[in-house]
Amino acid sequence: MPQGFAMGGLASGLNSGAIIDALMDVERIPILRLQSQKQRLNQQNDIFGKLDGKLDALMSVLQKMDTTGELASYTATSSDENKVKVTAGGNATNGAWTVNVTQLAQTMSRSTAGLADSNTTNVGTGSFGITSNGQTWNIDLSANPTNTLEDIRDAINNSAAPVSATLINDGTGATPWRLVVTGDSSGAANAFTFDLTNFTVANAAFNLNQAGSVLQNAQDATLSINGLSLTRSTNKVSDAITGLTLDLKATGSSSITSSADNAGVKKKVKEFVDAWNAIVDITAPQNAVNSTGQTSAILFGDSGLRSMSSHLRGGLNAVAGGTSSYRTLAGIGIRTGTDGKLSLDESDFDAALSADFAGVLNVFTDSSSGAAKSLKTAVDDLTDPVNGLIESRRDGIASRIRTIDSRMRDLEKRMEKFEERLTAKYAALEKLVSSFQAQGASLQGFGR
Questions:
Q1: Tens of pLDDT along 20-41?
Q2: Which whole-number Å values give the CA distances from 140 to 127, 183, 199, 266, in the listed order?
Q3: How far apart are the C-alpha atoms of 83 and 246, rounded to whole Å?
Q4: Where are the alpha helices (DSSP H) in 260-334?
Q5: pTM > 0.70
């Protein structure tokens, strides 16, 4: 009803305001239906949005188990971690080795002699070179007539030279301040020298090019594995024993062992089962009916949901290639219940791992038809941001909502005009009745 207008039916005795409201309620029924449709579409969109997130979570899990190196799990131990620590990757193997460290790798370190301070005493001007691994970096300080240890430190650290400079107060006597330059990488090849030919030294303490300036020589690590001698530039050796990383701590001998970690593999498989079941927790209620065959599920019978579920089941039922007797998920103890959820029979899974560790892994990691590859392809098809089923379905829902919003706007405008017409008609009726009443009163007065 137009704002500011009150219809009381004073002349006709009709409650015209209530009549107009009732007529408007009838006229609003199509809008209420559209609002109900929009609410249902929003609920559908929310469900597909949740599914998109759960599919992303499943993909994240699958990406961590689609190769043997990622899915396999091994444990490695050292008889003396104070000498050698060891960690195992997924591409390790069962085995035992004796590792004897005879020398640790270290970086080169050079130092100036001591100065009284780090920020006042001039040590010189000009440019100097730092040479390492056959390459020279030029440090140019010629723009400054005087340079302190701090200036030298900053210039070195601001260069691209593979060294780091720092100032150390050694606490000795009247000249405790030293500039110490250390290589960024260990190994004999990463030793470095200074060339002060073009640098005018103003203080003899700045002697980085002298043999006496070397605090520590760069050197390689030397070790043997089961008697085979090796040399490496770092103390972290990851390319000697396949799948193992040796962290050399001190010289001496240690016994290293590596073995398959069934519990580690099972943990990753459980994460997969949980990620799958999180999707089923959303899809299963959409297919549920009560004892009378009725349902309130928002996506009951939805073709997009059926297609998605079918796509995923196809990936789940993949059959891996190879000669192992284990080629399907069901064969290694991962089974599908009547509700669509997966369950892991741990005793069957452990038995399969013990019988054929590589064969069990291949069920997931087979490059042509493993479960991880097949499911990744299925999830990719569903979640593709351009052509994926989820995105297409949500785009369709969004388009329908826009259409409904447009129709509701049109209906609201039509209702406003309808209400204006009704109000005008009832106002005219009241006016007409009022005029009739006035004429009647006049006639009664005339007859007296």
A1: 778 877 878 888 898 888 888 8
A2: 4, 20, 9, 59
A3: 10
A4: 262-283, 303-316
A5: no
